[in-house]
Amino acid sequence: MGQKGREAKKGGIPAMITVHYNSECAKCRRQAVWTRRLDWLGRVVLSTAASPIGTVPKGETIVVDHDGEIHTGIDATWAICRQIPIYWPVALALSLTPLRRFLARKNQDAGGCAGGACDI
Predict the structure, then answer these.
(1) What is the C-alpha to C-alpha distance for residues 106 and 103, in angstroms, rounded to an integer?
(2) Does 120 score more than 90 pLDDT?
(3) Which among 14, 51, 62, 91 counts the fewest CB atoms within 10 Å?
(4) Domain chopping of the chain, boundaries
(5) What sign has the CA pseudo-torsion 86, 87, 90, 96?
């Protein structure tokens, strides 16, 4: 954890994205474990270091892609899903902008883990 930059992974293939998450969030840690297990192509670097836009709040992920573009919220989820083959059906669904907007609003209403409410 805490890896920075575009580090080579399995067989020298560069990771395509870096996922920044908060290590103090139990939900985030579980999601990171699953991401690591399912990333058999080695396209994701998981990091608990501060993201390029600062500390990652509990319940959120910040993704930096190979072009340096920063993704947050549902767009971060979409970026992760595009990298891991088993998530590709979800990525296909999230490619629909109206669905992404709906899920982004729903996630904002739920509040994520903000305020220590992470109990999943």
Answers:
(1) 5
(2) no
(3) 14
(4) 8-110
(5) negative
Average pLDDT over the chain, rounded to an integer? 83
Q: Give yes or no for residue 40 having a pLDDT over 60.
A: yes
Secondary structure of the chain in HEC code, one letter for each residue: CCCCCCCEEHHHEECCEEEEECCCCHHHHHHHHHHHHHCCCCCEEEECCCECCECCCCCCEEEEECCCCEEEHHHHHHHHHHHCHHHHHHHHHHCCHHHHHHHHHHHHHHCCCHHHCCCC
Please state the length of the chain: 120
The answer to whether the Cα torsion of 64, 70, 73, 75 is positive or negative is: negative
